[in-house]
Structure formats: structure tokens, C-alpha cells
Amino acid sequence: MSLRASFTAVMLMLLSAGVIFNFFQSRLTGPLFGFGLHPEVLSILEASLEDQRWLASRDPDNEPTYRQRFGTTETLMHRLQILEHSRDDIERRYQFILTVVFASTALLVIGGVMARQTRYESRLGRLQGALADLAGGRTDIDVGERRRDTIGRIATMIERTSRAMARDRRRLAALENLSAWQESARRHAHEIRTPLTGARLELTRLEGLLAGQDLDCSDEVREATRSVLQELERLGRFTQEFTSFARVPKPVLEPHDLGALVKELVTTFEAAWANLTLRFEAQDASVDAVVPLDRDMVRRVLVNLCDNSSLALGDTAGTVTLSLSATPESVFLDVADDGPGVDESIRSRLFEPYTTTRSIGKGMGLGLAICKKILLDHDGDLELLDSSSAGATFRLTFNRRPPEDAS
Amino acid sequence: MSRLLEPRRWLLLLFLFALPIGAKEAPRLDVQGQHLVLTDLPPILGDVEVKEHLTTGLTTSIQFSPRGRGQPVAGARVEIRYDLWDEIFLVAAGGIDGAVARQRLDSFEALEGWWKTLDLPFLDGSQLARPWPESLRINVDVVPFSQAEQDDTQRWFSESIDRRRSGTDATGRAVEKEPETLSRTFNLLLATSIRRQAVTSFHWSVPLAASAGGTP
Predict the structure, then answer these.
(1) Distance (Å) from the C-alpha of residue B111 to the closest C-alpha of chain A?
(2) How far out from the chain centre does Cα B59 lie?
């Protein structure tokens, strides 16, 4: 309702209230005074005075008593006479007081309503601005409304929508980036695999040709052939890794209790890493951790994270703690280790392919990229929540609602 | 419009009607010593409006004061109370000299007789600038009750409407939580609407010509 309409409505209400109030008031004060100051009352008091005097004349012994009663009645009568004399003034004053009280109340009500309406309009204006920002694509909207009324709830929705938009954009960008990398990996794997297969065949044929020959250099040739074969094997493994990254399968989502899955993993992989102790922080019974997920792929992510922690710890023993938390929309699984943390230089591109601090030949840095891809395909996310010299914490986010394309 | 309703005719009638009051009913101001004394007071006690109040038992005050601006300090007052038990009039008359004369009069006729002979020092002659004016305008207000009676009734009225003191009824309990200051302010505002006001007034123009040459 607009300010003007509100003002008119309030004025009409007050006017109606005023008319009703005045009607009943005028019907109340006058009769009440009339009742108290009825002429009969004075007549009776006068008669009472006469009676006291008459009684005193008949019973002189008790004259002081009658006189005292006379005095009391006389005082009352005089007071009533004075009231009767001032009756109009009292009524006027009474009406005046009530009018002032009513007017003050009305002013307060009008002031209150106007102030409330002004505040309401101002809040609506903020809401309008926030909606315009949202339509303009802004993703860090803070309307500044913390009340739980309708406007507050709408503001919260706008803020949530903007946050969801931001998350979707990040997710989309990451997916596009990973897709580009996947395509590149797939092409490289394809380009390498054909000559690699040819080279292996040729080398095997060469080994066959040399098998029946007794050459002076046969030992050296066999050694060289074995070395080349080893390098080709290594190249094959890399190509396989390329292929794995390029062909990360789509997750098959089904509702699973993430808590139960983690518990099972901790039990199964209890002794998988010699330098690592796995710990699952007891889940709060009230946390509902049932989310759509692909058990095998999530397990693969968790194993990868534990692998990374184990490698980062080296010869030192450490602990990986897995803990669950939830909001109405999402479930979070935090994986925290007490290792040396993620190197500062790679934090910003940690989930990009080929990002690694390991030496050449010890890994291609595709693990976290694959993990990120898996979580994004779950309509969730994988983030580095915290990293310091006391350890690193990764957060796996799962949405309770399954992604539309996956379902 | 009929001729009877013409404004000029009405004004003339009003003038003729009002003329005797100012012209005939006026006291004298005599020089007695240092003061100008009101004597030969018109018989206003017999006026219907005045007489009606004289026998109520309340103290009727008749206050004499100069009328108009720039008048010297002057005044006098007569208080009449009818004692309902003894059926006598108790009167007190006080003038500008501060002296108060009290009387007990056993009938209204006696009261009227006393009124006729009443001398009220009204004005200190030395306060009056010379040459004296030809006449002095005097206002007489008849007030139906005294200041003490007014105060008593105000107090009684205030206590009567303050249920918390006088009653333990449901209404009294219901208003117990009412802010005390607000309630008292409301009572005070209502009680102070009981005020002494003249029920009737007389306006006299008293000639000073006879005493103009005198030296108080």
C-alpha cells in the first residue's frame, strides 16, 4: 500500500474512531454527572438536615450527635452544590482532557504508521535495487535485511539466488576449463597411442630378428631394446593417465548416506597407508547426510585425497580427519590432514590439470583435477578450505537436490 | 423583515432596559478620614440571582473592585454565610483598610438592613491622582462559595475519582496498574476545573464630584 493510501486509511479509521468515541463520551459524561448531581439528591440532603434539627429539638440530650451528623451532611451538600455550580466547567475540562489524549494518541498512531510506511517503502526500495543488481548479474548481493518478515524473506531469497548464481558461474567456468583440458588430453593420448603402439611392435619385431643372430654387440642391443621398451611402457602409462582424465565417466547418482560411506571407507582403508591414520568424527545424529552420489567415484576422490596427504607427509606419520556438516540445502564433508599444507605457489591453480609439486615422472598432477570434475558432475564442489603449515583441509560439497542433467 | 425585528429597535430596547441599573443603582463614595468609603449600597442582596445563593449555606462573597485600566489599588469584600443549623446569617465585611467587621443577623430583613448601613472603605484617597475624576467605575462580583470551600471540594472530588484510595472494587483493582503520575495529573486537571466564578456582576459608576474638593 502506498504512503498516501495508508495515510488516508489511517485518517479514516481515526475519524471513525473519533466520531464513535465522541458519541459515546457525550452519552456517558453528561448522564454520569446528572446521576451524581440529581436534584433529588440535594432535596434528600436538605430533608436530612431538617430531620437532624428536628431530632435535636426533640432529643436535646443528643444534640451534639445530631449536630455532628448535620455538619457532615451539610458539608456533603455544599460540595455537591459547588460541583453543580462547576458542572459545565468540569464537563468541558473532562472533554478537553479526553480530546487531548485522543488527539495525542491519534498523532502518535499517525506518526507511527507514517514512520512504519516510510521504513517499509525504504526497504522495498532496497529490495528493488537488489533485484535490479541480480538481473544485472551481480553475484555478491547483500540486501542488509535481517528481519524475518516478508521483505526479509525475499531479501534472503535474493541473496541466496545471487550466491547460487556465483556458485554456478564458478562451476561452469571450472567445467569449461576442465573440458578444454580433457579434450587436449584426449587428443594427446590419441596422437601418442598410435605411434607408441607402432614403436612397440617394431621393437618387438627387432627383438625377434636379433634373437637368432650371434652378433658381437647383441648384449648392448638387447640392453638398449629393454631400455627403450621401459621408456615406452612409461609413456604408455602416461597415455593411460591422459585417457583416464579425458574419459572421466559421468557419475550414476543414487541416494546414499555419506556418513555411512565415509565410515565404511575409514574401516576398509584403515591400513592402506602406512604413515596415515584415518579418523571419522562422529556424526551428529541430527545431521541428515543422505545425498545423491556415485559411491565409487566419491570413494575414488577420498582415496585420492588420502593419497596426496600420505605423499605430502612422506616418512612422517599423520592423521586424516573426515567430518560431516550440513545445511538444509547441502552436506559438507571436510577432509583435513596435519601435513605440511598446500604449497603457496600452486594454491590458486590447485585444481587445474598438470599442477603438481612432485618431481618429473612422479605424477602428472591430474588427480585433483579429476576429483574436482567428479564433484562438479555431482552438482557439488571441491575446494581447498584451509591450508597452513599445520595441514590442509579440503571441503567436498554435495547438494541434496540431484542435478537436473544427472537425474 | 418585520419592523419589530429591526436591529435598531432591539438596541434601543436594550438600552432603555439597561439604563436604570447603571443610573439609579449606585452607591456613594464618601471621604472618611484617609479613605473613600462606599456607603448607601444598592439593595443587590434582594436580586433574585443573589438571594438564591445567600441561603445555600455556602459562603457567598461579594467582591468590590475598581473597573477598567489604570485604576488605583482599591477593593472591598463582604462574605455572607447562612448557618443552616441556627438559621442565622454570619457576615464579615472588610475594606481596603484591612479591618474586618463581623455580624450575626437572624433574618434576611436584618441582613438587608445591615447592608444598607454598611460602610466599606474602598480606596485610599492618597492613591488617587489629583484632580480626582468625576466618577469611579466599580465592579461588584457575586461569587457563590469561598476559596476554602473550593479547595475542600477540589480535594474531595479528586479523592472521589481516585478509586485506588477509596475503593477495593474490581474497577479499583483494574486501574491499579495505571501510571500514578498520569492518574494524578488527570485528577488534578479535573479537580482544578472547580473554580470560583461570579454568578452575577454589577457595574456601578460612582460620582466623585461631591468629594472633589475634600482633602482626605
Answers:
(1) 22
(2) 10
Question: Considering the entire predicted model, what is its pTM?
Answer: 0.56
pLDDT in tens, B152-182: 999 988 888 776 555 444 444 444 555 567 7
How far apart are alpha carbons B202 and B65 in whole angstroms?
11
Q: B34 with B20: CB under 8 angstroms?
A: no
Cell numbers at B151, concatenated: 479547595
> What gap in Å lies between CA B56 and CA A78, rounded to an integer?
8
Angle ∠(B85,B88,B94) on CA atoms, nearest 5: 125
> A378: closest CA among A260, A289, A265, A294?
A294
Mean pLDDT of B137-165: 86
Residue B150 buriedness (CB in 10 A; 0-12 / 13-18 / 19+)? buried
Cβ–Cβ gap A79/B150 under 8 Å: no
- Say whether B190 and A79 touch across the interface (CB within 8 A): no
CA distances for B124 relative to A197, A294, B111, B134, angstroms: 144, 118, 27, 17
**In chain B, whose CA is at the least distance from the CA of A78?**
B58
pLDDT at A359 (0 to 100): 64
Contact between B193 and A93 using a beta-carbon 8 Å cutoff: yes
Of B136, B22, B12, which Cα lies nearest the Cα of B76? B136
Q: Is A362 on the interface with B (CB under 8 A)?
A: no
Question: Which residues are registered as beta bridge partners of A326?
Answer: A331
Do residues B137 and B67 make contact, with C-beta atoms less than 8 angstroms apart? yes
Strand partners, A232: none
B9: which DSSP letter? H
User: Quick one: CA dihedral B162, B164, B169, B174, positive or negative?
Assistant: positive
Cell of A392: 590442509
For the beta carbon of residue B138, count every other beta carbon within 10 angstroms.
25
Q: Looking at CA atoms only, how far is residue B52 from chain A in angstroms?
A: 12
Q: Tell me: cis bond preceding A353? Omega within 30 of 0 counts.
A: no
Among residues A342, A346, A329, A325, the alpha carbon closest in space to that of A395 is found at A325
Q: DSSP 3-state assignment of A331?
A: strand
User: Which range is most confident: A20-29, A265-274, B73-82, B159-168?
Assistant: B73-82
Q: Identify which of B56, B186, B189 has the shortest CB distance to residue A81.
A: B56
> Residue A360: which pLDDT band, with cuts at 50, 70 and 90?
low
**Phi, psi (deg, nearest 5) at residue A277:** -110, 125
CA-nearest of B136, B4, B8 to B70 is B136
Q: Is the ipTM of this complex over 0.90?
A: no
Grid cell at residue A264: 565404511
The C-alpha cell at B2 is 418585520
Please report which residue ranges of B42-143 form alpha helices under DSSP H: 48-54, 108-116
At A13, list the grid cell.
479509521
- Does A55 lie at the interface with B, CB-CB under 8 angstroms? no
Determine the average pLDDT of the residues in A365-394. 88
Residue in chain A closest to B87 (alpha carbons) equals: A53
CB contact under 8 A, A94 and B195: no
Closest CA to A248 of A291, A301, A197: A301
